[in-house]
């Protein structure tokens, strides 16, 4: 199985190397052709132009007398590798003297290498297949001799060694007689097959026949690996690949149940180092990369198997140090830089594994210190690796955190050593010309590790205050770095100053928190937030301002998470155990947020801080204000905003308004339940009304504050109208809820007795508010209140609870109620204009006149309870006469105002009265009453006719518009004026 793996690797490496050779050969051929064209162009400018265009078309001849441009100097000849010169001797540049009249078209060009079916299977693969076949033949010869029993084991091994040596000799012969071989792949195939045969012979002698011991076999494999490296210099990369595979696989192939780790580590170091140097000499960066990767693989296996003594730990640690730092230096170019970064990171991880598996002994930590020193040196050597110490420091910090049971002095030594190795160089370079953000990160990490690592190990056993000095030491480390950079002009260009400064503030806060009680953590972090805010503003550094915002967010979290009773107090559900302490916590947070609202460098932060400040002020007040009065706090905050007389930002207003609304929700829901029931006819009783104290504190107080805000003009322009609407709604609800307590209607009996009075007086109050708003110029407010009053009258007084059909004591309230409605309709003429509005007002007036006349007539016969059943003949006749009288009045008004709607309704009423008299009234009357009834009806009809014939023609003569109306009653648009 091992032989098959080796053969497969040989084939893959050979194919890749063959392709690289082909590309190199083609590049050199093109360069030679370009040099030839430039030499030709110096003597023949037209040929140069043709050569540059590559179109092979003869250019226009140059006129006589025109100067010929100077040719560019010919570049220096590039050295040609021997295998390229041997493979393409015809590409060598000929002497200039041998070309009397050079022509571009006649210049021979080496044909490009093709990869068709015949080329692949006829030219390329047979050679490599032949080399592989020879290697297999060597194995078969040995196998045949074993099966036939012809040769002894020793002779078989010797024959295998001789066969391998012969193949290598054949490769040398093919190299020397290149005129016969004429292909570099022949010698590469022969040498590769020879190396593979030698490896197989040694392995058979050691593992199959046991002719030699492990150490002898190991030495043999080492010699073959060295030979493969030397042959690769002469014949090419395939031998180097075999040396790589054989050198790294030799320890496993030899086989030993108890390997000597120091010897094995030394072998791996020599092998990887030799291959890395070979790769650098031959410009094979991949060879060094593969060798280093294989070395790390072996290192991981050795660590996993266990490092049981000092020698093993020392040898494997030294190998890791070489693999992480020394060997990658042999790899040049961009691949080398990338490999050095990867090797250092992997080396840190592997060294951490050595420290962990080795028991965190001083020797292990010393090896990690050496690796750290090498990493720091490497970061100063190449700019691309400047941030590499971050990896070493990070791995070391994690390793100290994972240390299972460190002693105090040992942990102190490790932390001090890490701080010296990583911190001092970082501090030295931080504010120099090569200072980087990574240096600041290292200093900050060291400052934090000084206190956090011991706290993680001993924090459960020792008092918290014992770690405060360590936090102060870490603060001093970061503070010194910050102080050194204060006067540096370049500190604003990146995050270096912000990182070390914020770390110093964080460690100072931690030091204070370690000695302070738990409840003081939130105030301490709030103070740190303000300090960071001030520092960021003084340093003109938005990064520090962003860190201050992070401190503020932590403050909010600590405030919320510390004591749930304090949060419950904000809604009046609990009492804090220590009100003074709770007040101090929330008050300090509120002051800190106020500072952010005033001085933060970011507009968004200022807006958010304004809102949070209002919340924290409310929470602070909630810790000492009794629950019954707590709802006044947001109202007082709104009032205070109004008292300032300055424009208040929308976030602060919004939060205070939401707090006030939150307290008002319960009484508003109670009121809305009663109001909603009243809309469908359920009496709005006192038990469906909020209590007086709840109404005053939770509804009236916020409403008054909103009124003050609107009145003082402190609301933003876009919120002024919304605030006015909210103030009107809340004020109206508060007054209505209090008004319900005046009459205190608690049952249906009192509702019958006092319902009409309560509604009428309530509408009178609203009407007074309408007049006041109109007087002070609030026309839109007056219009809204007037509409609400009119709708209230229409729905409750004129429809749901009209005394004509609802059990209500009318008393003296009919005329005041309808008078208010008539006044509102009259005032609407100043708000709603146009023919449609005029016709609507006329319709409302006619309806209210009919309704009022009917109610008054009913009250004249039945007293204050209009809904009692029964009707006398006199009342019935009175209804007819009232209808006729109203019809005559409508007709008079319609004629005087040229209002056709009034005249039409007049005729409808008249016809209705006539029909009623003839069909109902006259049928039940006798004698003089019947005669009087008919006489009255007759006179009414005559009077109507007389009015139409007497006044309408005269009006038509006085007004041409009325002439058209008299001619066509159906089409008179002007008659709709009120």
Question: What key phrases describe this protein's structure?
Answer:
978 residues; mainly alpha; 36 helices; disordered N terminus; disordered C terminus
Strand content: under 5%
Shape: elongated
Radius of gyration: 53 Å
Biggest sheet, in brief?
A: none
Give the number of helices: 36
Task: Provide the residue-averaged pLDDT.
Answer: 76
Number of strands: 0
Structural class: mainly alpha
Q: Whole-Å distance between the termini? A: 114 Å
Helicity, as a percent range: over 70%
Low-confidence stretches: 1-11, 50-78, 80-119, 953-978
What topology does this entry show?
Elements lengths: L1 H42 L1 H9 L28 H6 L29 H32 L4 H24 L1 H4 L2 H25 L5 H22 L1 H18 L6 H21 L3 H21 L4 H17 L6 H25 L4 H20 L7 H14 L5 H23 L6 H22 L9 H18 L10 H20 L5 H19 L2 H21 L1 H6 L9 H21 L3 H20 L9 H13 L5 H30 L12 H21 L4 H27 L4 H28 L3 H22 L13 H14 L7 H28 L10 H25 L2 H22 L5 H32 L1 H8 L11
Helix pairs in contact: 1-2, 1-7, 1-9, 4-5, 4-7, 5-7, 7-8, 7-9, 8-9, 8-10, 9-10, 9-11, 10-11, 10-12, 11-12, 11-13, 12-13, 12-14, 13-14, 13-15, 14-15, 14-16, 15-16, 15-17, 16-17, 17-18, 17-19, 18-19, 19-20, 19-21, 20-21, 20-23, 21-23, 23-24, 24-26, 25-26, 25-27, 26-27, 27-28, 29-30, ...
């Amino acid at each position: 199985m091992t032989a098959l793996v080796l053969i497969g690797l040989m084939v893959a490496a050979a194919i890749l190397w063959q392709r690289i050779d082909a590309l190199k050969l083609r590049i050199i051929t093109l360069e030679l052709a370009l040099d030839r064209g430039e030499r030709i162009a110096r003597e023949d400018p037209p040929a140069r132009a043709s050569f540059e265009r590559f179109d092979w078309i003869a250019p226009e001849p140059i006129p006589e007398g025109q100067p010929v441009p100077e040719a560019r100097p010919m570049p220096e000849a590039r050295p040609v590798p021997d295998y390229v010169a041997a493979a393409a001797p015809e590409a060598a540049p000929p002497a200039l003297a041998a070309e009397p009249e050079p022509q571009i078209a006649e210049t021979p060009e080496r044909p490009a290498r093709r990869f068709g079916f015949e080329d692949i299977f006829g030219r390329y693969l047979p050679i490599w297949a032949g080399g592989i076949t020879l290697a297999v033949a060597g194995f078969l010869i040995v196998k045949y001799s074993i099966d036939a029993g012809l040769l002894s084991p020793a002779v078989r091994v010797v024959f295998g060694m001789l066969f391998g040596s012969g193949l290598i000799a054949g490769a040398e012969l093919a190299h020397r007689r290149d005129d016969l071989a004429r292909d570099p792949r022949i010698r590469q195939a022969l040498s590769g097959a020879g190396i593979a045969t030698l490896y197989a012979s040694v392995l058979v002698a050691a593992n199959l026949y046991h002719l030699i011991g492990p150490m002898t076999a190991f030495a043999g494999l080492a010699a073959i690996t060295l030979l493969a490296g030397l042959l690769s210099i002469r014949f090419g990369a395939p031998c180097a690949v075999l040396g790589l595979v054989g050198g790294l696989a030799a320890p496993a192939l030899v086989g030993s149940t108890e390997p000597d780790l120091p010897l094995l580590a030394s072998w791996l170091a020599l092998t990887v180092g030799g291959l890395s140097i070979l790769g650098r000499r031959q410009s094979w960066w991949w060879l060094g990369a593969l060798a280093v990767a294989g070395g790390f693989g072996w290192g991981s296996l050795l660590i996993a198997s266990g490092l049981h003594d000092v020698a093993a730990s020392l040898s494997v640690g030294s190998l890791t140090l070489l693999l992480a730092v020394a060997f990658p230096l042999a790899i040049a170019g961009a691949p080398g830089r990338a490999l050095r970064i990867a090797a250092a990171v992997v080396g840190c991880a592997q060294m951490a594994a050595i420290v962990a598996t080795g028991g965190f002994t001083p020797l292990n930590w010393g090896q990690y210190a050496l690796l750290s020193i090498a990493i720091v040196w490497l970061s100063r050597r190449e700019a691309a690796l400047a941030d590499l110490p971050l990896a070493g420091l990070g791995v070391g910090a994690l390793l100290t955190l994972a240390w299972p049971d460190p002693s105090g002095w040992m942990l102190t030594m490790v932390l001090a050593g890490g701080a010296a190795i990583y911190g001092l160089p970082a501090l030295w370079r931080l504010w120099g010309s090569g200072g980087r953000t990574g240096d600041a990160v290292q200093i900050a990490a060291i400052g934090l590790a000084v206190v956090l690592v011991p706290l993680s190990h001993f924090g459960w056993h020792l008092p918290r205050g014992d770690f405060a000095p360590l936090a102060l030491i870490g603060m001093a480390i970061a503070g010194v770095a910050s102080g050194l950079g204060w006067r540096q002009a370049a500190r604003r260009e990146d995050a270096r100053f912000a990182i070390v400064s914020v770390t110093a503030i964080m460690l100072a806060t931690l030091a204070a928190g370690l000695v302070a009680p738990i409840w003081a953590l939130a105030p301490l972090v709030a103070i740190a937030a303000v300090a960071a805010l001030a520092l960021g503003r003084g340093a003109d550094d938005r990064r520090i301002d962003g860190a201050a915002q992070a401190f503020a967010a932590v403050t909010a979290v600590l405030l919320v998470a510390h004591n749930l009773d304090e949060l419950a107090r904000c809604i009046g559900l609990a009492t804090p155990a220590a009100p003074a302490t709770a007040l101090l916590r929330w008050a300090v947070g509120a002051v800190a947020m106020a500072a952010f609202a005033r001085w933060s460098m970011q507009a968004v932060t200022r807006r958010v801080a304004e809102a949070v400040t209002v919340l924290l002020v409310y929470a602070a007040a909630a810790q000492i204000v009794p629950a019954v009065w707590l709802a006044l706090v947001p109202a007082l905050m709104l009032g205070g905003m109004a008292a300032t007389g300055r424009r208040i930002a929308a976030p602060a207003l919004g939060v205070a308004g939401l707090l006030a609304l939150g307290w008002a929700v319960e009484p508003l829901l109670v009121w809305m339940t009663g109001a909603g029931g009243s809309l469908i006819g359920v009496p709005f009783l006192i038990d469906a009304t909020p209590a007086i104290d709840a109404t005053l504190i939770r509804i009236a107080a916020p409403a008054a504050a909103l009124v003050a805000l609107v009145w003082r003009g402190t609301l933003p322009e876009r919120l002024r109208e919304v605030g006015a609407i909210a103030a009107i709604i809340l004020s109206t609800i508060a007054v209505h809820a209090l008004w319900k307590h005046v009459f205190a209607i608690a049952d249906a009996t009192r509702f019958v007795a006092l319902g009409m009075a309560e509604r009428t007086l309530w509408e009178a109050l609203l009407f007074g508010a309408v007049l006041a708003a109109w007087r002070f110029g609030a026309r839109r407010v007056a219009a809204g209140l007037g509409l609400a009053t009119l709708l209230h009258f229409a729905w409750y007084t004129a429809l749901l609870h009209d005394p004509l059909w609802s059990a209500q004591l009318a008393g003296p309230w009919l005329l005041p109620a309808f008078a208010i409605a008539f006044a509102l309709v009259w005032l609407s003429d100043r708000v709603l204009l146009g023919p449609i509005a005029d016709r609507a007002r006329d319709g409302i007036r006619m309806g209210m006149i009919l309704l009022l006349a009917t109610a008054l007539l009913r009250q004249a016969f039945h007293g204050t309870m209009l809904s009692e059943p029964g009707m006398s003949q006199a009342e019935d006749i009175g209804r007819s006469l009232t209808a006729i009288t109203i019809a005559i009045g409508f007709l008079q008004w319609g004629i005087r105002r040229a209002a056709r709607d009034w005249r039409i309704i007049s005729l409808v009423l008249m016809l209705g009265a006539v029909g009623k008299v003839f069909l109902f009234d006259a049928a039940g009357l006798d004698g003089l009453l019947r005669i009087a009834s008919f006489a009255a009806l007759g006179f009414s009809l005559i009077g109507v006719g007389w009015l139409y014939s007497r006044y309408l023609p005269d009006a038509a003569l006085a007004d041409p518009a009325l002439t058209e109306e008299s001619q066509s009653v159906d089409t008179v648009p002007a008659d709709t004026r009120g």
